[in-house]
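Service request form, structural biology core

Requester: graduate student, group of Dr. S.
Request type: structure prediction, single chain
Budget code: on file
Notes: please return the result as C-alpha cells.

Sequence provided:
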Amino acid sequence: MKKVVFVADSLDNAHKFQQVLSRMDVEVVAGSCAHLRTLLRQEPACDLVVYEAAGASQASMSEAEDLLVEDGIGAMLLIVKRDALPDFRLPMRVASDFVTHDASPEECAARVRLLLWPGTETHSGDFVSVDNMTINLATYQVRVGGEPLDFTYLEYALLAFLVTHPGRTYSRDTLLRRVWGFDYYGGSRTVDVHVRRVRAKLGPDLAQRLETVRGVGYLWNT
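Core staff response, request fulfilled:
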C-alpha cells in the first residue's frame, strides 16, 4: 500500500481528493499547509505529497520541494490556481505534476496514479521527440539531451502546441486563443516574449526550428 500526505487549506480540495484517494490502495495522512514540515517529519516514508499551492509564491513552493528532497520523498502533486499558471514552474528535483483547482476528480485521479505508479499510465503517444528533445505530454516536461528544461507552464504550452502542429503558421492572435485561452486580455506581443524565452532555453539548434513568419506569426519546422 502506498502512503500519501495530503496538505491543503480549502475544503473543496479536501473533499475532492478524499473522494479520489478513497478509491485507491493508499493510506492518507492529511493536514493544513502550515503543518507541511511536521507532517513530512511524521511520515518520512511517504510516496507522494499532494500540496495545495493556493496563494503560494514560487518561492514557497520551492521551499516545499526542498523539504521533500531533504526527506527523500520523490513525488509531488501541486494544486494550482489557474491565474497562477503564467509564472508557474514544476519542481525539477522530484517527480512532479500539477492540477488546477477546478480539475475534475477523474483528472486528479489520473495525475495521482501517474506519480504513484509510474510507467503504468503512460504510453508512446504521450511522447514527442525532435532531434535530442523529448516532450512528455502527460507530465508537461521537456528534456533536451536527457536534461530537463525549466519552462514555465505557458512556455511549455506554447512549445508543445507548435511542436504537435508542425509545418503550419499560427498568428499571434491564434496562439493567444489556443494557448493562453479566451479569457486572456493582454497584448499579442506577449507571444513574442514567450517565443524568445523558449528559443533561449532550447538552445541554438532546436531554436532554429521555431521560425518567425514575417507579418504572420510562428511555425515549428520539421
